[in-house]
C-alpha cells in the first residue's frame, strides 16, 4: 500500500466516551481509508490470530490484474460471511429480547420444592424473548398476531423455560395439528404471500374446518393482537403445569405475567400505518426503554387448583383452547420480572436463545395437556435443526448459570474439554465424576394412568363455543365492535365465499348478533347455516378480567407525546406541555417540517427531534399542535401535517392546541370534541392523553 496521506480523525458522539479520542487514518493509493492500530489498540487478525496488514484490498496479480485464489485472508472473511445466517425459527421468527431478573415475593413452599419459587427475595437472572408468530424474521413488528412470551430463568437448579404467549388459549387441542395450522397461516406456498397476515384464504379455510379454534379466534380478532408496546402485554404459560412439593403431592398451576404499565393496544388502522412508519416499532420501544433506564416490569401470578377442583370446572383444564377465569380461580402474585439489560449482540443472544418447554426444574412438572406433551418433543428437535448441534446448551445465552456435568460427549462444535478417561457411569475409576442425586434431583409426579390406548380426543374437549361466547360477551361495546370489524376485514380478504359462509356459521354459535353484523359487513343477504355443534353451548358467567380496556391503566407512564411546532411557535406553551408530559412519566418529541432548530416567537432556538414527513402521529399516544397563525396557514397546505392531525383524531387520541394550532385543526376539518383541548387547560389534556376517546369512534369510522 502506498500511503498518500496520514491524518487524525476526531471521533464524534457516544463512541468518543468509551472509545479512543482519535483514530489514525491513512489514505491508500486508491483513495481507500485505512485505520491502523496504535500502541493500545488490538491488531486486526484472521480467525487464526494472524495480524492483517491490509483489510481493504484483496491480493491481485498486478494493479489491474485478477484476484488470486491464494488470498486466504479474503477467502476466510467471505466464507465466514457466507455462513452468517442460521435457519430462522419456523414460527416466532421475528422477536426481540432482553436480560433481567425474577424476584420472588411470595413463597410457594407449600406446593413446590423449586427454589426459584420458594426463596423469597432471591433474584434469579433471566432472558426474555417476545415475538410475533406468523411473519419471517424481517417482517414488521405490528401485524395483527399473537405475541410469543418466552422466559428462560437461570435458576440454581438448572434452566427453567416458561414459553408462553400473550393470549391465554391456543388454536388447537392436539400437537399433531400444529404443522397444518402453521402451514395455513404462513405465506401461501404457491405465491409466497401474504407475509405475517391471517387475512387470506388458507388460514380461514383451515380455521373454518377447525371449530376448536373459535375461542382463540375471538382473542386474535380483539385488540390484544395489536399491542401498543411489548411492555404493555400480558403473558400466559397457557397449559396447566404441576407443582410438586417435598411430600410428592402435586397441585395444578397456570402462570400469568401482568405488565406494570397495564395493557395498551393500538387500533387496526394505526397498527397498519406504524408498520410503514417504523417496522421496528416494538423492538425500538423496548430498546429505548431499557437503555434509558425505564425498565419494563411484570408481575408473575399463579392460579393454583387441585384435581378435585378441576373436576368441577365446566370445561377440561387440559384443553389449551380453554382458560380458567380469574373469577373462578383467583390469581396470586408471587414475584416480579424486570428487564434491565439489553443484549450485547442480537444474533449471539436473541437469535441463538433456545427455549424448550421441557426445560423445567425439580418441583415443576407437566400436565397431560396433549398440546404441551407434543411441545416437549418439538422444541429440542427444532433447536437441533436451527442451531445445528446438540451442544447448543453451551452457547452463553443458553448455558445454565449453575454447575452442570454429565457424560455426554463430543458432537458438532463441542466447546468443553472434559479431562480424564471416564465418560460413562456407573464407574469405579473416577471418584469425582458426576453422580445421580436421588434426594434433590428431578422427579416426576407419581400420577396413575389408566384407560385404553388410542388416537383419542377426550369427550371433555368437545365444547368449542362456550368460552368463545363467554369471551365475546365479556367485552364492552367498543371491544365487540373491534372484534366484529376485524372479522369483516379478514374475511373480506378471503376469495372463496364458502369459507366466509362457514365462518359466519360458526359465529352463530358464539353470538347471533355477532354473526349478523359480520354477515352484513360482508354483504351477505342471508345468514348461513350454523354447523352442528358437538355439545350444547353453555351460558357461562361473563368475566370482566377478560377485557382489554378494563386492564388499561389510567397513566401516561411509558408512553409518548408528539408536539408539532414551527418557527414562530410560542416557547412558553411548548415548555408547559413538555413539563406536564414529563411529570406524567411520558416522553416528548418535538416535530417540525425540518430537523435542526426552530426559531420560536421569543427568538430562542429549539432543537427539533424529528422530521414531520418521517414521524406521523401514529408514533405517539397524544399530540399537541403549537403554531403561529402564519405557520398554521403554511402547514395547512402540507399533506403530512394534515395527516398528522387527522390520524391522531381518527385514532381517538387527545389533541392539544394553541391558537395557531387551532387554525390547522380547522383546515383539517377536525371537530372539537372532549379530547381536542386547548393547551391552556393542561390538566385536561394530560387526563385525555392517558386514554383513547372511545366515544369519538362512531364519528370517524364505520364499524361492523
Ligand atoms: Fe411453539 N414453537 N409450538 N407454541 N413457541 C416454537 O421453537 C410448537 C405453542 C412459542 O422466542 C418453535 O425455538 C408446537 C404454544 C413461543 O424462541 C417450535 C406447538 C405456545 C416460541 C414450536 C406449539 C407456543 C415458540 C419454533 C404445538 C404458547 C418462540 C422455534 C404443540 C404456550 C420461542 C423454536 C422463542 C417457538 C413448536 C404451540 C409458544 C417449532 C409443535 C401453545 C413463545 O419448536
Low-confidence stretches: 10-20
Q: Helices and strands: which structural class? A: alpha+beta
Rg estimate, integer Å: 29 Å
Q: Could you please say which CATH topology of the domain at 79-182 and 235-245 and 271-394 applies here?
A: Catalase HpII,  Chain A, domain 1
Biggest beta-sheet profile? 10 strands, antiparallel
Distinct small-molecule ligands in the complex: CIS-heme D hydroxychlorin gamma-spirolactone 17R, 18S
Beta strands, count: 21
Q: In DSSP terms, counting alpha (H) and pi (I) runs of 4 or more, how many helices? A: 20
Mean model confidence by pLDDT: 95
Subunit organisation of the chains: single chain
Describe this entry's structure for a reader.
- Among the domains are: 79-182 and 235-245 and 271-394, Catalase HpII,  Chain A, domain 1 (Beta Barrel); 560-700, Rossmann fold (3-Layer(aba) Sandwich), CATH 3.40.50.880.
- It is globular, with a radius of gyration of 29 Å.
- The chain is built from 20 helices and 21 strands.
- The protein starts with a strand and ends with a helix.
- CIS-heme D hydroxychlorin gamma-spirolactone 17R, 18S (HDE) binds at residues 89-92, 95, 129, 131, 148, 150, 163-165, 170, 175, 178, 238, 320, 353, 355, 371, 374-375, 378-379, 382.
How do the strands and helices of this protein lay out in sequence?
Blueprint: E1 5-10, H1 15-18, E2 22-27, E3 33-35, H2 72-82, E4 95-104, E5 123-132, E6 147-155, E7 158-165, H3 178-185, H4 201-208, H5 214-220, E8 235-236, E9 241-244, E10 250-259, H6 268-277, H7 281-291, E11 297-305, H8 307-312, E12 332-341, H9 346-351, E13 364-366, H10 370-387, H11 466-474, H12 477-492, H13 497-510, H14 512-521, E14 560-564, H15 571-583, E15 587-592, E16 596-599, E17 605-608, E18 610-611, E19 622-625, H16 629-635, H17 639-650, E20 654-657, H18 659-667, E21 676-678, H19 682-689, H20 697-700
Parallel strand pairs: 14-15, 14-19, 15-18, 19-20, 20-21
Antiparallel strand pairs: 1-2, 2-3, 4-5, 4-12, 5-6, 6-7, 8-10, 9-10, 9-13, 10-11, 11-12, 16-17
Helix pairs in contact: 3-4, 4-13, 5-11, 12-14, 13-14, 16-18
The structure holds CIS-heme D hydroxychlorin gamma-spirolactone 17R, 18S.
Amino acid at each position: 500500500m502506498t500511503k498518500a496521506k496520514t491524518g487524525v480523525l476526531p471521533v464524534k458522539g457516544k463512541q468518543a466516551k468509551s472509545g479512543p479520542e482519535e483514530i489514525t487514518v491513512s489514505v491508500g493509493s486508491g483513495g481507500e481509508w485505512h485505520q491502523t492500530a496504535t500502541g493500545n489498540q488490538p491488531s486486526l487478525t484472521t480467525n487464526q490470530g494472524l495480524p492483517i496488514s491490509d483489510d481493504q484490498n484483496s491480493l491481485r496479480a498486478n494493479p489491474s490484474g485478477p484476484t488470486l485464489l491464494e488470498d486466504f485472508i479474503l477467502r476466510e472473511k467471505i466464507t465466514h460471511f457466507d455462513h452468517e445466517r442460521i435457519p430462522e425459527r419456523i414460527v416466532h421468527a421475528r422477536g426481540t429480547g432482553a436480560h433481567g431478573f425474577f424476584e420472588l415475593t411470595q413463597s410457594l413452599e407449600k406446593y413446590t420444592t423449586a427454589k426459584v419459587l420458594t426463596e423469597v427475595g432471591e433474584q434469579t437472572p433471566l432472558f426474555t424473548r417476545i415475538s410475533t408468530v406468523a411473519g419471517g424474521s424481517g417482517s414488521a413488528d405490528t401485524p395483527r398476531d399473537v405475541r410469543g412470551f418466552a422466559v428462560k430463568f437461570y435458576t440454581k437448579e438448572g434452566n427453567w423455560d416458561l414459553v408462553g404467549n400473550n393470549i391465554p388459549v391456543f388454536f388447537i387441542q392436539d400437537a399433531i395439528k400444529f404443522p397444518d395450522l402453521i402451514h395455513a397461516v404462513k405465506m401461501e406456498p404457491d405465491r409466497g404471500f401474504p407475509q405475517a397476515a391471517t387475512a387470506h384464504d388458507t388460514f380461514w379455510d383451515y380455521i373454518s374446518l377447525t371449530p376448536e379454534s373459535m375461542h382463540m379466534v375471538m382473542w386474535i380478532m380483539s385488540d390484544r393482537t395489536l399491542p401498543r408496546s411489548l411492555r404493555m402485554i400480558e403473558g400466559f404459560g397457557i397449559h396447566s403445569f404441576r407443582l410438586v412439593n417435598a411430600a410428592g403431592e402435586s397441585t395444578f398451576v397456570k402462570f400469568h405475567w401482568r405488565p406494570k404499565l397495564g395493557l395498551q393496544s393500538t387500533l387496526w388502522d394505526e397498527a397498519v400505518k406504524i408498520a410503514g412508519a417504523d417496522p421496528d416499532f416494538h423492538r425500538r420501544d423496548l430498546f429505548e426503554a431499557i437503555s434509558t433506564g425505564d425498565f419494563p416490569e411484570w408481575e408473575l401470578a399463579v392460579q393454583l387448583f387441585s384435581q378435585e377442583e378441576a373436576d368441577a370446572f365446566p370445561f377440561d383444564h387440559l384443553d389449551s383452547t380453554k382458560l380458567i377465569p380469574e373469577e373462578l380461580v383467583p390469581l396470586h402474585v408471587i414475584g416480579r420480572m424486570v428487564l434491565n439489560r439489553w443484549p450485547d449482540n442480537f444474533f449471539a443472544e436473541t437469535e441463538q436463545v433456545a427455549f424448550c418447554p421441557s426445560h423445567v426444574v425439580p418441583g415443576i412438572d407437566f400436565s397431560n395437556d396433549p398440546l404441551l406433551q407434543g411441545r416437549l418433543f418439538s422444541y429440542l428437535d427444532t433447536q437441533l435443526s436451527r442451531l445445528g448441534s446438540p451442544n447448543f446448551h453451551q452457547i452463553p445465552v443458553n448455558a445454565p448459570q449453575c454447575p452442570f456435568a454429565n457424560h455426554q460427549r463430543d458432537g458438532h462444535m463441542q466447546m468443553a474439554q472434559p479431562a480424564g478417561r471416564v465418560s460413562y457411569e456407573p464407574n469405579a475409576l473416577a471418584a469425582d465424576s458426576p453422580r445421580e442425586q436421588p434426594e434433590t434431583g428431578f422427579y416426576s409426579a407419581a400420577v396413575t394412568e389408566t384407560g385404553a390406548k388410542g388416537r383419542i380426543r377426550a369427550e371433555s374437549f368437545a365444547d368449542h363455543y362456550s368460552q368463545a361466547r363467554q369471551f365475546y360477551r365479556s367485552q364492552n361495546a367498543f371491544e365487540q365492535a373491534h372484534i366484529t370489524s376485524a372479522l369483516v376485514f379478514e374475511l373480506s380478504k378471503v376469495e372463496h365465499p364458502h369459507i366466509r359462509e362457514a365462518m359466519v356459521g360458526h359465529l352463530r354459535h358464539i353470538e347471533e348478533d355477532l354473526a349478523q353484523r359480520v354477515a352484513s359487513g360482508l354483504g351477505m343477504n342471508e345468514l348461513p347455516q350454523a354447523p352442528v355443534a358437538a355439545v350444547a353451548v353453555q351460558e357461562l358467567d361473563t368475566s370482566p378480567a377478560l377485557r382489554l380496556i378494563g386492564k388499561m391503566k389510567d397513566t401516561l407512564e411509558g408512553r409518548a407525546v408528539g408536539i408539532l411546532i414551527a418557527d414562530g411557535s410560542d416557547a412558553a406553551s411548548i415548555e408547559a406541555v413538555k413539563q406536564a408530559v414529563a411529570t406524567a412519566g411520558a416522553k416528548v418529541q418535538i416535530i417540525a417540517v425540518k430537523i435542526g432548530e426552530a426559531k420560536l416567537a421569543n427568538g430562542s432556538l429549539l432543537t427539533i427531534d424529528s422530521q414531520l414527513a418521517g414521524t406521523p402521529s401514529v408514533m405517539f399516544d397524544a399530540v399537541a399542535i403549537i403554531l403561529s397563525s402564519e405557520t398554521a396557514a403554511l402547514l395547512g397546505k402540507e399533506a403530512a401535517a394534515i395527516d398528522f392531525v387527522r390520524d391522531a383524531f381518527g385514532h381517538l387520541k387527545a389533541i392539544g392546541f394553541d391558537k395557531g394550532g387551532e387554525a390547522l385543526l380547522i383546515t383539517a376539518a377536525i371537530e372539537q370534541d372532549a379530547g381536542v383541548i386547548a393547551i391552556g387547560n393542561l390538566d385536561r389534556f394530560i387526563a385525555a392523553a392517558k386514554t383513547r376517546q372511545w366515544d369519538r369512534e362512531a364519528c370517524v369510522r364505520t364499524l361492523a
